[in-house]
Amino acid sequence: MNNPLLQKFETPFNTIPFEQIKLEHYLPAVEKAIDMGREEIRAIKFNPAVPDFKNTIEALERTGKTLDVAAGTFFNLNGAETCDEMQVIAQQISPLISAYADDILLDEELFKKIKTVFKTTDRDTLSKEETMLLEKTYKSFVRNGADLDDNSKIKLKELNAQLSKLGLTFGENLLKDGNKFEMRITSKEALSGLPEGVKEAALMAAKEKGYENEWLFTLDYPSYIPFMMYADNRALREKFYKAFGSRAFNNNEFNNEETVKQITTLRHQKALMLGYASHAFLVLEERMAENPAKVYNLLNELLQYAKPAAIEELKEVQDICTKLNGPAVMERWDFSYYSEKLKNDKFAINDEMLKPYFQLEKVIEGAFKTANLLYGITFEKHSYIQVYHKDVTAYEVKDENGKHLAVFYADFFPRAGKRDGAWMTSFKGQNKYDAVEQRPHISIVCNFTKPTETKPSLLTFNEVTTLFHEFGHALHGILADGYFESLSGTSVFMDFVELPSQLMENWCYEEECLELFARHYQTNEMIPIELVHKIKDSANFMSGYQTVRQVGLGKLDLAWHNLSEIPAGTVSEFETKAVAETELFPSLKGINTSCAFSHIFHGSYAAGYYSYKWAEVLEADTFDYFLEAGIYNKEAGKNFRDKILSKGGSEHPMELYKKFRGQEPSIKPLLKKSGLLKEEKAV
Prior knowledge:
Glutathione S-transferase Yfyf (Class Pi), Chain A, domain 2, two-stranded antiparallel ribbon, 683 residues, mainly alpha, five-stranded mixed beta sheet
């Protein structure tokens, strides 16, 4: 078959030949790759030799690599560059992969061999990484039903296939319902308060759609967020807010209410079948948190400090709202607008003041320089590496000695076929099989403001920290140095994976880092030192509110996944009850978070959204270490690289952390950093 996904890639660094791949290649490639994987599994099962680590555990680890690349390429592009035809193919491919995984995990003969190796292997003969792979492989089979009876295995396969398709449906509904909404403005008066750059971007978006003399606003973040923050027209803010808050919750074919209930019901059934009290117990067994009680303890402790601060913050915003003759009772669609007024009043700083100093290309350069100063690595742009869209840029990453380290793709602008948000992913993992090292191919995908006819892409400060966040994930992949691919890079516990990413955000607040890239896009002048101080001074602005919001999302996630029984009421009724203690505004009819909560219903954060706050404890403790040593101290960078970034999931994350830091993390640095730790309070 002349299918580029099934042939040896004759490309630089064996990168994906995107330009040769057509939609009709994906399904046959996945089907063929599954057949190849089954042959590899059969070879392990029918190997007459006594089962041991090499011929069973490592052999299994090395199966399915063609499928990894074919399916990985497809699903990465389905998130970043999808279309209706691709979504149809996804519904065909997804259950095939789910069934293939089930056939392996529920294979009785294969599991017998794995169990034999698990019970008879002397751990002293294995390295720590080999021991981790052995433990992880055995647990993976048990946790996925290998010990179930035949009837239960059949039922489990059905559940997995259904869940696979429902997750895709959730994401497709959210994307399509979001894309349906357009706010077309024809009056200049309705644009009052909006910065020139925002108006220019809206004018360009309208032109691209063929709308003359109009301004187009959509639910993409770069369009939605500045409108809510700056638009004086309150009625339009309300309309926009309600459109955003009702995505996939409208009375149409893209409504996700039933999908949410079906996903949570099936996840709960699966957990019970596997012997767990809930999906949360199943998930958290393989997390640093270990069980729901520990997650609730963290969230409740954070709420104890954050909620009083949040209530005070809301009062401050209401006060300035009243002072500026705003509504007597502030509504949700007023909050961003008046909190931005308050920020400007308190710190004399706003995004429009900062954006000229944060040209996208220079921010990227600053991230690269930071990585170079910490880890000695360099990034070289290469036009000869094929990309999947004209907006994507490809780089070769080299180590301090000029040796090839990774391929890095950067995809920064919104488009109709790209889902919201920002994420890091990989097209190829890292391994060292047969003394030949495969280096990783890493990608970050964001949705930043596009350049206009008169301005380059200028980022808000929040977008700057988002870029550094995703770049932190990328470094975790780029600097991977393991033997086994499934334990390499970001293949770590979900509540540990956010440490490198959230840690990187800290550099954005430091003068030493901002000096590397924060230059005016027109004059090339360095960002004034007073603005740097204001960025730092305003770092904790609304930290109580933001913490309560994150705690609320964490509690909503756990509520859906730590069920004792499936709720009988509506999705909205369930959600209202779940977030009641974190709600700072009255509940609003027609607005729903669950139906658009793609992290937990389309992504991989089910029962794991708390991970962001868990990792914040780790990163605040870690950044304390860098502040003591110097934020560009090479020894500190080497220590973090050697003990954390390069190790992936080769050891338990708490053991890695203690080797790096010399102790377990404390919550105190996070509370202090967030401005939530008062002197009289002890932790």
